[in-house]
Specification:
The protein is of the alpha/beta class. The chain contains eleven helices and 13 strands. The strands form three sheets. A six-stranded mixed β-sheet has the order 8-13-12-9-10-11, with helices on both faces. It has a five-stranded mixed β-sheet with strand order 3-2-1-4-7, with helices on both faces. A hairpin with a 3-residue loop joins strand 1 and strand 2.
Length: 334
């Protein structure tokens, strides 16, 4: 197999708890094109969604024979169940159903991690003055439907993603107000896992806890409404929720950077941050990221960046597929 072409495209996908993004890679630039977003809830399984996409963008002959799908959840063995959604499937059966010679499945934040070296200054916004150190370990975290975490490690054979379930580690509290929120969280859910607050549903939960602490009995709000009200000056409690969210995210990100030694940079992805970019940039995120005594000088030198590229996991899925095909001896120069 040579590089992808219009006659031999690659299919790449990023499947989250809410949306499924698909794209085709059709040339040696390895940039996904024809990206389309489908709702997970509108399809019974992955194969149905992929077939719907392929019918839309190809219809005729040039069906892909190789694919890589990034999915929200741990990938172990052949059976997979999507985190935060109802899809479950056999990887081998899905590949056969779609007529694929090669069908790879990778954790969604593993795919995000694989994209990191390919994101230039036009695809990110820097948070703080630190710059990436080339060739050093990198990390990506992202609050969306859940909280994704992954590292990217340099090897003699290229980059390797390191994935796990880091979004469920215990979240640290620094202020009395945060401790009060954590107490409510623990009373309700039995623990203080980071994803419980640092996600879209977590932001709504955080706002609700602040309402309880204020004794206001405020209405339940969706994350996008909290973002809007918190930035237009109409709701001080929404503004506090956004500020606390960003501060806690900074503390969490600093822990990830320390754990992975991410001197190549820690990048922020996920679906919710674009709706609060201005708040994030002026928030306590960076101060809390650096507040890691006695290792403050170490983390101060680590770059933090917000990913602004629209579909980085598709780029990472492409990189993973190319790596897999090369290792299988199936990818040769044109």
């Amino acid at each position: 197999m040579t590089e992808p072409s219009p006659q031999h495209p690659w299919l790449v996908a990023d499947i989250g708890g809410t949306n499924a993004r698909f794209g085709l890679v059709t040339d040696a630039s390895r940039r996904p094109r024809g990206v389309k977003v489908l709702r997970v809830g509108d399809h019974p399984d992955l194969a149905d969604a992929a077939e719907t996409y392929l019918d839309h963008v190809t219809g005729q002959a040039a069906r892909p024979e190789a694919a890589c799908v990034a999915v929200a959840g741990p990938v172990e063995g052949d059976s997979f169940r999507l985190t935060n959604a109802a899809w479950s499937f056999s990887i081998a059966d899905t590949g056969r159903r779609l007529g694929m010679d090669t069908f790879e499945v990778i954790n969604d934040f593993g795919a995000q991690a694989m994209a990191l070296p390919h994101l230039d200054d036009s695809a990110v916004r820097r948070i703080g003055p630190a710059r990436r150190v080339p060739g050093k370990p990198m990390a990506v975290i992202g609050p969306g439907t859940g909280l994704g975490v992954a590292g990217l490690l340099p090897t003699d054979d290229g980059w390797i993603p390191a994935t796990g379930e880091g979004g469920h580690v215990t979240l640290p509290a620094e202020t009395p107000r945060e401790a009060d929120v954590m107490a409510l969280l623990k009373a309700e859910l039995g623990g203080v896992g980071a994803e419980y607050l640092l996600s879209g549903p977590g932001l709504a939960r955080l706002y609700r806890y602040l309402s309880v602490l204020e004794g206001t009995g405020a209405e339940a709000l969706r994350p996008e409404e909290i973002c809007r009200r918190g930035q237009d000056g109409t709701d001080p409690l929404c503004a506090e929720a956004l500020d606390m969210f960003c501060a806690l995210l900074g503390a969490f990100a600093g822990n990830v950077a320390l754990t992975l030694g991410a001197r190549g940079g820690l990048l922020l992805g996920g679906g919710i941050l674009p709706a609060m970019t201005d708040v994030l940039l002026r928030s306590d995120f960076r101060r809390r990221f650096e507040n890691k005594s006695p290792m403050t000088p170490y983390v101060t030198a680590i770059a933090t960046e917000l990913i602004t590229a629209p579909a980085p996991a598709l780029l990472g899925a492409t990189a993973w597929l190319a790596r897999h095909l090369r290792h299988q001896g199936a990818l040769t120069p044109a």
